[in-house]
Amino acid sequence: MKTTTRVAVIGGGVVGCSVLYHLTKLGWSDVMLLERSELTSGSTWHAAGGFHTLNGDTNMAALQGYTIRLYKELEEITGMSCGLHHVGGVTLADNQDRFDMLLAERAKHRFMGLETEIVGPDEIKKIAPVTNTDGIIGALYDPLDGHLDPSGTTHAYAKAARMGGATIETHCMVKETNQRADGTWDVVTDKGTIHAEHIVNAGGLWAREVGAMAGIYFPLHPMEHQYLVTDNIPEIEAIIDAGGEHPHVMDPAGESYLRQEGRGLCIGFYEQPCKPWAVDGTPWNFGHELLPDDFDKITDSIEFAYQRFPVLAQAGVKSVIHGPFTFAPDGNPLVGPVPGVQNYWSACGVMAGFSQGGGVGLTLAQWMIEGEPERDVFAMDVARFGDWISPGYTRPKVIENYQKRFSVAYPNEELPAARPNRTTPMYDIFTDLGAVWGQQFGLEVPNYFAQGDEPGYETPSFRRSDAFEATGREVRAVRQGVGINEVHNFGKYLIKGKNARGWLDKIMAGRIPLPGRLSLTPMLSPKGKLIGDFTVSCLSEEEFQLTASYGSQAFHMRWFLQHKEHAVTIENISDKRNGFQVAGPKALEVLQTCTRDDVASMRFMDVRKFTIGMTDCIVQRVSYTGDLGYEIYCDLLSQRQLWWTLWEAGQPHGMTPFGMRAMMSLRLDKFFGSWMSEFSPDYTAAETGLDRFISFKKNVDFIGRAAAEADRAGGTERKLVAFEVDADDADVNAYEPIWLDGAVVGFCTSGGYSHHAQKSIAQGFLPSKRVADGLEVEIEILGHMRKARVITEPLFDADGARMRG
């Protein structure tokens, strides 16, 4: 056995073999895979083997499309069969909400190049004749859906990897992973110790245990999953005899998926009375076993399936497959470099391995070899969870995700499991004021404040929700008087040291401000992609406060620490420093009554230290509302005292608390972008307009400079613009296609309703050559073509007089 390797991949399921293959495909041949038993010994061997492209995240859907297209390439490379059956599939909708979701997904697919289509009940009967379409409104048909042979596919990945120079060691159990001082690893196995530069945890059912060897907690949990294979069914035999094959049918109402298996059918369930497995750890001796049959938990599911697929009622059961597979709390994989641990990579939590395994392997190989993936993969980045997460949080969220596997995914839905978890000192005060809570990165965040008999829960919808009136009330309060909200939804970082300014000049593309001032700056990857949208505040020549998205803390800290230099300290103070934003025409008047310091003398983008009431604060003259406003930061333990000071001073002026729903409406008035909507690793600064904050004059080779200069010199093919939309009862959410001259030419990044202007507003990308004020386009919203026009003048404070004056 080899004793040194560049990469040691731990785990021989479909994901581990895909990672190994893609590493060789991209040029690294000194790589090896370690498997404690035989290949496919975990969840892979008992998987149903289905694959599909449908996913609520467009980049995940694109990676699933890549995975599916890869299988024919694997067969050509290796000469092995993956047992491919491209039979197509339909996802059924039995109510308007489910149908709305399918319409939204179909619209996204247009600009992704996926040839799906919406079909009605009559067409469903022709495509999937065993389906009872009573009560069905329609379905989404995807010709790429299908199934394969799990074992054959995994071995094809393995052969392709070996052909590229990789080594695979089976019956080689990893016992320890010990990091050396230089960041490399000693992987101790029962066959000896291997010195590896990098480790990839592709442990599947054992990923938690493998991670624990390095002191890492992976938020994963296995769930029991059961599917049935029937005896021969005459209706299926007739299709086969006619030279056909029955397609997949996904029935969200019945929480089931169905496909042909031999001359019968295979049907699996995501039942509500589901069961977590191996709560205290996966046994090392588990492998090719199955769990005992458990028909009790799927009794209701089977009864529903008999109604949807009547042929099942007369069919005998040939076999029952009941085995575990792992979920992350949100159902997406955990992929990428583990924050805070050098040269340790994750490729686990891939519950849909035959839909996503190829994309996971490609993404991780690009990340390791090229330094970054080609697309935004935050939806599966291991850094989307922070170090606050625990097994006690993971398990109920995994159960919830399993139960909602086939549920409608609404853009405004707030899932209730494991909540509230993390709260600020304002939680009870805001609850008493009627807060309707959302969550971000595990933290409770007010979405809006209900009054009177307004419901304390926002009903999920693809259309304007029952939060509409409350949101409008809060927007008007800000624009006409003064509003207050918490700044807990900002990630906050303290950068100190003699080299703090020099380091920031390299890590940030924009200008680093002088003491007492702040600046806005993008943070770029080496390829010029946006990986951060920051406010940098200079508190002194050797002390800076950075603020950005709260939900990207682990993502940003990973980047900071990867690029840390001597004489710089970096501290995440997101949950140590909190405070409030006060915004609106009365904001100055309110704040001035709370302090002896001269608030009126603050210029736009000034930073000062004030004492407000009894609290020492950092005050910044800036506001994401686009209005006159101030961000006020204090020590967490002083926050409640600061609240009562501001709240009392604000009462004569009608001070109103406002939440994230109002914030996202207010920012539309100024066409402000939002992180992970307008600004993400999918886009460059020049495409989004953030290049106006890049300091090309500074004599520093900041990260991404060459790519940003190339964009500036050559221009970009697309530009981010704003639209006024002739909407009905549904506004743009994200990824709706933009039509021009009868063709899809772009897509929306986000949108909503401007309660100030009383207009539906969207932002999105158009070809740069076509951008013009007043250009008329159409935006497809829930299957309807809505007229829209490009607008370039902000809807509020167009000259910036109120914000800057």
UniProtKB/TrEMBL annotation:
Its EC number is 1.5.3.19. It comes from Falsiruegeria mediterranea M17. Pfam families: DAO (PF01266), FAO_M (PF16350), GCV_T (PF01571), GCV_T_C (PF08669). InterPro entries: FAD-dep_OxRdtase, FAD/NAD-bd_sf, FAO_M, GcvT/YgfZ_C, GcvT_C, GCVT_N, TrmE/GcvT-like. This is 4-methylaminobutanoate oxidase (Formaldehyde-forming). It comes from the Bacteria. Residues 718-797 form the Aminomethyltransferase C-terminal domain. Belongs to the GcvT family.
